[in-house]
Amino acid sequence: MRITIALTPGDYNSIGPEVLIKAVQEKKDVRFVLVSPPDWIEVYSDIARLPNLFQDRFSQDVLLGHWWPENITPPDVHIQLGKVCGEVGKLSMMCVEHAVNMCLNGTADAMVTAPISKEAIFKGGFHFPGHTEFLAEKTNVREYTMMLVDKGLRVGLVTTHIPLGSVVAHLTPDKIINKLTIMNTALKKRFSIEKPKIAVLALNPHAGDGGLLGNEENEIIAPAIAIAQNSGIECDGPFPADGWFGSRNRNSYDAVLAMYHDQGLAPFKALSFGGGVNFTAGLPIIRTSPDHGTAFSLAGSDTADSSSMSEAIQLAIDMASNTLKVNLSKS
Prior knowledge:
Number of domains: 2
Distance between the termini: 15 Å
Number of strands: 12
Strand order of the largest sheet: 3-4-2-1-5-12-11-6-7-10-8-9
């Protein structure tokens, strides 16, 4: 049985469709369905001088095509590479919504999303900080965790798209325990790690230096770790964040939980060299994406690096294949 992966193009004025077109050419024995009005990818391909691979070419060797609900009319706008446009932002989220439905109804085994523009989707009427929050609402999930993955390096976040000044107010023992639980489950279910081990980072420099630089470690993080350990989750910390990613200790853990966005993602992106993947843990569906943005300045130049998109697609394939094997073993 072939795995079916739903792909969303992201913002059509960005490099999203370009990295998709480049990445799918590297994959075989998988059915790819681009969730988009067919004429949009054709127009993009012509403007960007790229091959239009998604022309409903389903055969034994070529399994590429597009899909769009017949009763839904897409926004009537023109692609302007490198420009922020609300109607294009609206379309990008409509594509994501339809891909979610495909995964929920079993038409697709996983979905991979190209980058969106937060400014464009806001202008288009979608008031979400990003893909993650939108996907959670559409799948009726209240608790989820954004994870960045690059082979054995896996980084989860307690807080995501909030101002740095608001991080402390959002840190509670319950929230940290919840994220550890979601990560632990995802590592077992999606990554086939039988007994995951998770490192937990401190919030303050030097893990608070015994309270001299902050009490969050003693009052919030350490108690959360203790409760998680008592529930059967293998986790340790809080570790000072400045030295953890460069230490040999990192190799003893399957994942690390960071307290806020840049604490985890800045070192991750420095280490992954553009090959990282964004994975949303806690959803009832499999969703991955590249760890880069829209790169409007590169749109149409045919210079965009598709490495991260290729890794995102491969991770989705691997996860979907593992889920299929597990389901077949149960039947």
